[in-house]
């Protein structure tokens, strides 16, 4: 049986950031994860978004597949069940999803990195609701990054310029009920690390999300109702030279009656700007890490490198 990780920080984002920054930082350094209450995303908006997500995934398969964008790496629109495969995994994950990204005007300097969004005509209110949720996620993520900056003894607004017009993506996830035809060894989301800067996850209250500790043990994450789970991505780990950890995690298959229910969640993958050079911070490259600082790389090049590894590019 998997134990829970009792020492993961649970903090209120409504508190003064100076009072929570070190608790967050210590949790990210040890586990790569923290749980945030009072994150500012209205419950009414969350409920509305969940209802529309369920409405979309209940559409016929051919209707959903009409929104799959060939050659787009899954960055916008629909990605069918059985497509994404975790790095080094032998079988695909048991999930389907929809991506909403940033919309930029065609003449914007970063427009070449971000294709236009598509919206399902069959679901009323979809564009308005998820555009609103995207903005709310971004605001909560920005506040979390301010707390992280304080922990790293950087100016509180350090990350604002690094993520301005960043290639952040909101994912609507559906894990269908487990069928008898699932490939042997397949789980809802195989062990993986996130590519981006930080991830904010709504809908993790149902059991299944687990992280891998430094000791090599899987620990379940216990999430209060309505809270956000925030975890460090590979880009932030690289920037901090490993001081903040991008932790391997997974979503395991439920047992009993829960196996016959769908699971829904909404992660927001907050990204640096595509042209931001990820170069280890001087304050984090002081020799305390086990490895030498990584070579500088643009956020876009790093993203494309990793998308190829997970079968999305």
Structure keywords:
313 residues, eight-stranded mixed β-sheet, alpha+beta, 7 helices
Structural summary, described in words:
- The protein has 313 residues and is α+β, with helices and mostly antiparallel strands.
- It has 7 helices and 15 strands.
- The protein has an 8-stranded mixed beta sheet with strand order 2-3-11-8-13-6-5-4.
- A hairpin with a 5-residue loop joins strand 9 and strand 10.
Topology record:
Elements: E1 3-4, E2 10-12, H1 17-30, E3 33-37, H2 43-57, H3 61-65, E4 77-79, E5 96-101, H4 126-151, H5 160-163, E6 169-175, E7 189-192, E8 198-202, E9 209-212, E10 218-220, E11 228-232, H6 234-239, E12 249-251, E13 263-270, E14 277-278, E15 297-298, H7 299-309
Parallel strand pairs: 1-10, 2-3
Antiparallel strand pairs: 3-11, 4-5, 5-6, 6-13, 7-12, 8-11, 8-13, 9-10, 9-12, 14-15
Write a brief structural summary.
This protein has 313 residues and is an alpha+beta fold. Helix content is 26%, strand content 20%.
Strand order of the largest sheet: 2-3-11-8-13-6-5-4
- Which percent bin holds the helix content? 25-40%
Count of alpha/pi helices? 7
Radius of gyration from CA coordinates = 19 Å
Please state the average pLDDT score.
Answer: 86
